[in-house]
Design goal:
Layout lengths: L6 E5 L9 H15 L3 E7 L16 E5 L2 E6 L5 H12 L6 H9 L5 H10 L6 E4 L5 H9 L4 E3 L12 H9 L2 E2 L4 H15 L1 H5 L25 E5 L8 H17 L6 E5 L13 E5 L3 H10 L2 E4 L8 H8 L4 E4 L3 H10 L2 E4 L2 H11 L2 H18 L2 H11 L3
Parallel strand pairs: 1-2, 1-5, 2-4, 5-6, 6-7, 8-9, 8-11, 9-10, 11-12, 12-13
Antiparallel strand pairs: 3-4
Helix pairs in contact: 2-3, 5-6, 9-13, 11-14
Amino acid sequence: MIKRRARIFLACPWFDVFAGGSERTFSDLARYFHEYGFEVEVLTTTSKSPYSDWQTEQFAPCEYQRDGITVRRFPVDVELKKHFRALELIGQGKEPGPKLQEDFFLHSIGSLALIEYLKETFDPAVDVVMTGPYYQGLSHQIIRALPWNVILLPAFHDEPEFYWAPVLKMLKSARRVFFYSQLEKNLVTQAYGHELGRKLEDWPVLGLPVEAPKETAPQAALPARDPYVLYVGRLEAGKALPELCKWHVGYANAERRAERTPLKLRIVGAGNEALIPEHPDVLFEGYASEKEKLSLMRGAKGLANLSRNESFGYVLMEAALQGTSVIVSGDCPVTREFAMSSGAGIPVSSQDNYTKALQALADDEVRNGLGRSGRNWVRDSYNPAKIINRYLEEMGP
């Protein structure tokens, strides 16, 4: 068990901005650790968003309090051009050599000033440092600066970068690794089990705490909307948003040819809006507040997320807690396993699958049954008290 006098440092590329599941993970962990009585410091960068220029679009370096938690922002001071050179080669279908692989990770979002602060402040005899995700440079920088002292929350996916040499170097130098799912740990075992040996067996699968927000007032009635399915998340090709839009347009056009009224696809998030087609049955809602997002989830016939690169699928858990069924990619092991184990939804792998899933969700009995199953499963599996207590146990010496 972690010592009561320990400070918990949570280091992440973005905080208090819209940056997807990783930012949400560290935001929630900071809040829970603080509620359990620990002194928490969040160390992050001045970058405003994953979708803007990482060096020119920055907050000023600062320190502030958020609900009793100290947040420190440090400047992005790495050579980003080296990172983008590696990205350019990947886009050309080329395999970057060892030097470019290093540059890809060490010169993505990170801060040498943050590293220096942590080296001066961190007490390895008492304190705990946690960082993630693996894909951004900050985690690599911190683990190299404080080898065998840092807990990594990697959010690994089966993607080319996962197999590059800096990842194994990071794993060997981490104090421990906490996984979000057994499938994530299995991926590491298959790729690096021989090199990591028995230490990998000791690294736990913890998941994340998930709970519905406490309502402080009666829920307002939803505004009248045509029946819809919902997408919530980053607007990027890596989340399979183009595929989702293409399949929905195909479904909607077929329904209209058959003189039936299709479900709308409502899209909530931020990023590359050019990925959203102009079509009467695909509607972009923009960024939504937490309250608005949950309201949209409750009103949806289902939440659709076809991303193949997920290590946990937090937004699916949120939807399930609202009693909303889900449509997921049949090619993503993590979300497929969630949909099947929880009974919350339907995996799809083709246009025809997607169309049949939407038709199934039109049946109130089917849809409500999926919603009940998912809500009960998430409440039992990711109860915050149970999950946070496991974190505190595993964070100890």
